[in-house]
Write a structure and sequence with these properties.
The chain is an alpha/beta fold. The chain has eleven helices and 13 strands. The protein has helices at 16-31, 66-77, 105-108, 117-130, 139-148, 190-200, 232-241, 256-263, 289-299, 309-315, 318-329, and strands at residues 2-6, 36-41, 55-59, 82-85, 96-100, 133-136, 155-157, 177-182, 208-213, 224-228, 244-247, 268-271, 284-286. The strands form two sheets. Strands 3-2-1-4-5-6-7 form a seven-stranded parallel sheet, with helices on one face. A six-stranded parallel sheet has the order 10-9-8-11-12-13, sandwiched between helices. The chain is globular and about 65 Å long.
Length: 337
């Protein structure tokens, strides 16, 4: 089969969509030696991505109207059997479409997406109308999509895997700081984390909060450190040494940083809204600000839930992900929920 893939996320910042795209492609390259893949992008191939003869990286320009016109033209010229719409938007194609939904946060929290709401809603409507299958990362998202109008048999759950660069871990050596990793958007509820940390300082004054964000912002609090554009190697070390990882998003469809923290043996403190059902048993969950602060205080004495790394690796595996995706390529989807 010929399979087209929207790989445009590889041209953006190395955040959620980039991590997802990169790890999925690496897993497919390792697993599938039979089908031929065409990776559509508008930038040069990342050095980290090693391709074999079955995978062709196609840089298509111009960037303006890239998916709607340029990718659509490539699909028309060279017809594919399947198109993987990794980033929710779908080009014109006669291929069977497998799309990937990253959640409905823009519907639940429209106030945070006023500039992009119409575009995101149009993409979701198009996805439901045109996709043979819609892949979601959690049963939470599947329930939301079905409520919105997707068909039950159309929507399939496949949990993401631990990013490849977080599969190895070293000996943990906790230090006096809490950690948050993510984009600086209101949906992430970073202000909640900062306020709880300020309350925590009344309990322990020698701790710090490290925020790893997509852009640099200045902090006037000497106990709060802002980092941006750091390497993945440095991020791994931060997970290893953090007293605990903090998450308080209003909404998450998966939450890679929580999984990354768990893979590095770092305890996670999270509001329930910020963690998907499949991860909840591995996380220290708070229902409100009072419980969140109490968990932060307990972390000082190592009194938090920890996880078995081998269990996490088995449950959240890219190898398992592509095996299940491969079933959909061949329409053998009955075992997928």
């Amino acid at each position: 089969m010929k399979i087209g893939i929207d790989s445009g996320a590889l041209c953006g910042p190395r955040l959620g969509n980039y991590i997802f795209t990169e790890n999925l492609l690496k897993a497919l390259i390792k697993f599938d030696k039979k089908n031929k893949y065409f990776l559509y992008s508008f930038c040069n191939k990342p050095v980290r991505l090693k391709l074999n003869k079955n995978f062709i990286y196609k840089k298509l320009l111009p960037k303006k109207g890239w998916l709607k016109f340029r990718v659509s033209l490539a699909e028309k010229i060279n017809k594919k059997d399947i198109f993987l719409a990794l980033n929710q938007a779908i080009p014109y194609t006669k291929a069977s479409i497998i799309s990937f939904s990253h959640g409905t946060s823009f519907i639940k929290y429209k106030k945070f997406y006023l500039q992009n709401y119409i575009r995101l809603k149009r993409q979701l409507d198009n996805m439901i109308n045109k996709s043979k299958f819609i892949i979601v990362s959690s049963k939470k998202v599947k329930s939301e999509l079905i409520k919105y109008g997707a068909k039950t048999h159309q929507t399939k759950i496949i949990n993401f895997g631990i990013p490849n660069d977080m599969l190895t871990t070293s000996k943990r050596s906790p230090k006096k700081y809490f950690l948050f990793v993510g984009v600086n958007q209101k949906i992430k509820n970073i202000k909640f984390i900062i306020n709880r940390f300020k309350e925590f300082l009344k309990f322990k004054k020698d701790y710090k909060l490290i925020l790893v964000l997509n852009n640099f912002i200045k902090s006037n609090n000497k106990n709060i450190k802002i980092l941006s554009n750091i390497s993945r190697q440095r991020l791994q070390k931060l997970y290893l040494s953090a007293n605990a990882y903090l998450s308080a998003s209003y909404y998450e469809s998966f939450n890679f940083p929580i999984l990354e923290a768990l893979s590095q043996k770092c305890p996670v403190i999270s509001l329930k809204s910020s963690v998907i059902p499949e991860m909840q048993k591995y996380v220290n969950i708070a229902n409100n600000s009072k419980e969140f602060l109490k968990l932060m205080q307990r972390s000082v004495n190592n009194d938090l839930k920890t996880v078995n790394i081998n269990v996490i690796k088995r449950k959240f595996s890219w190898n398992n992900y592509v095996k299940k995706l491969y079933l959909l390529f061949n329409r053998n989807d009955k075992i997928l929920k």
